[in-house]
Structure prediction request, 542 residues.
Amino acid sequence: MRGGGPLGPAGLALLPLALPLMAAAAWASARPWPAAPRGQPRPSVVLVACDSLDGRLTFYPGNQTVDLPFVNFMKRYGTVFLNAYTNSPICCPSRAAMWSGLFTHLTESWNNFKGLDPDYVTWMDLMEKHGYHTRKYGKVDYTSGHHSVSNRVEAWTRDVDFLLRQEGRPMVNLTGDRKHVRVMEADWQNTDKAVNWIKEEAINLAQPFVLYLGLNLPHPYPSPYAGENFGSSTFLTSPYWLEKVTYEAIKIPKWSSLSEMHPVDYYSSYTKNCTGEFTKEDVRNIRAFYYAMCAETDAMLGEIISALRDTGLLKKTIVIFTADHGELAMEHRQFYKMSMYEGSSHVPLLVMGPGVKEQQQVPNVVSLVDIYPTMLDIARIPIPQNLSGYSLIPLLRGKAENEVSSKGPRPSWVLSEFHGCNVNSSTYMLRTGKWKYITYSDGRSVLPQLFDLSDDPDELTNVAVKFPVIVHSLDKILRSIVNYPKVSSSVQRYNKEQFMSWKQSLGQNYSDVIANLRWHQDWLKEPKKYENAIEKWLGKTK
Ligand SMILES: *[C@@H]1O[C@H](CO)[C@@H](O)[C@H](O)[C@H]1NC(C)=O
Ligand SMILES: *[C@@H]1O[C@H](CO)[C@@H](O)[C@H](O)[C@H]1NC(C)=O
Ligand SMILES: *[C@@H]1O[C@H](CO)[C@@H](O)[C@H](O)[C@H]1NC(C)=O
Ligand SMILES: *[C@@H]1O[C@H](CO)[C@@H](O)[C@H](O)[C@H]1NC(C)=O
Ligand SMILES: *[C@@H]1O[C@H](CO)[C@@H](O)[C@H](O)[C@H]1NC(C)=O
Ligand SMILES: *[C@@H]1O[C@H](CO)[C@@H](O)[C@H](O)[C@H]1NC(C)=O
Prediction:
């Protein structure tokens, strides 16, 4: 039974032997940095980054819906972050932040087409330079040029005054039987490669290593029924994984009526083809299939943990599990991410290994830019002052209260931004304490949102008007981090420039090519009207 649960109850019982009590004694007394006492070998690191896993599934009550045994294993022997966020809820910009340690307005990775400069020195480059053996498998996706033409044109034209459905309607597809474990073949192949590398190469290394495994799951699958230019709106799994889902625990999200939606949310829902009718059963199924896909992801993480345990490397290795962003799975009448709502922006972050406190739940807000300084801290490499994030090591040791990094104290907020497709305005989110503040564009032309997550975890009541003083103070903090009106207008300029040069490159084929992108069903009904809307947008000076 591959992927089914090699660390079953027997494995769990064995683990305390594999991870002796070194943690408590040796590590707690080490002051200040580095992460490990000098003289002791630096730990190896394994980072498993999946795609689209809603972080709330890794702790109560979200974890009631699906059995994730290896996430639970990491919680038992390590630390789970209860408030970890992506810095930009879409693949390439999020990964650019994770690999660069910089906020999105600094990497200028505005969409899935525009990523990080390939020459940028990542934490992995630095670790290699400082004696680590490095290895990557699977999806990396932080440099430029990937993803479909549709995807980038949708991002560039988001300011155009038109509304087109760009995606297949979200749907489910059950494949195979109760024995069908390997549904996402490509991910399993990459997992196998990483496992083999651990068993055959890592085990013989004299130096510490850093291994990265990037998984596509639980990202939804392409919907080929929608034609040549299709999106990925199919939630695909097998009965084997569906059995791990507790249907009774699945919450059916409340939706605002279409007319009451925030205008930007309406644009998202419409372009994602979610404004049609959905029954409760449709929604429950999409969510169940999504959770089943998360269970399959967890099993891949399990293969890596098992390989580390079987080779005896687990006790010398820090394991990190995270995702680039979440998945709304029909919350707020949307699937995919691109949104600042919890389902989309909240990511899983679990860490276990030498020096990491066991059974710890960390409430502090953290974000993916923290990975870069954390990696350097683990490898005892000096941390540059100009990174956007902070090392997680003090929190991981359970010493948050009295430790301060060389850069000063960790701030009490995190920042996320979005500048890509399916959202017709640059979006900025500041999360601090119980508040989530979301503002758009120039800060004036679009209604901001404020949610009290302690009172309204489903983010259904925008209290921005009710608490103007809070909005004012959060906006002030935000502006001290980023001059967001300026960033928004530079993205608008970039979008137009990119679109114009793409249009020019197509010559006389332009009308034909643009009509047949992912939005072709709608476009072809009134091609002239949509072309005119584009001309009007291009003609505007700003
Ligand atoms: C859910 O998470 C809580 C808190 O971390 C834990 O106590 C509980 O055992 C978990 N439940 C499941 C079903 O995984
Ligand atoms: C949108 O969903 C409808 C069904 O609700 C489907 O017929 C149509 O093909 C979808 N549009 C696109 C662009 O995929
Ligand atoms: C369902 O998934 C199977 C296996 O990937 C595929 O062959 C089939 O075409 C899919 N069906 C639909 C309707 O997408
Ligand atoms: C975004 O799209 C919605 C729906 O078409 C529209 O009401 C809103 O004005 C647009 N917002 C911006 C900033 O263009
Ligand atoms: C950050 O500082 C390092 C030197 O510590 C420098 O090499 C790098 O270019 C700087 N990066 C940015 C984005 O300013
Ligand atoms: C337009 O399309 C034709 C046929 O596909 C192709 O041969 C030609 O190179 C294209 N022209 C441009 C400017 O891309």
Observations:
- The chain has 19 helices and 14 strands.
- The first helix runs from residue 9 to 18.
- The CA atoms of residues 71 and 437 lie 29 Å apart.
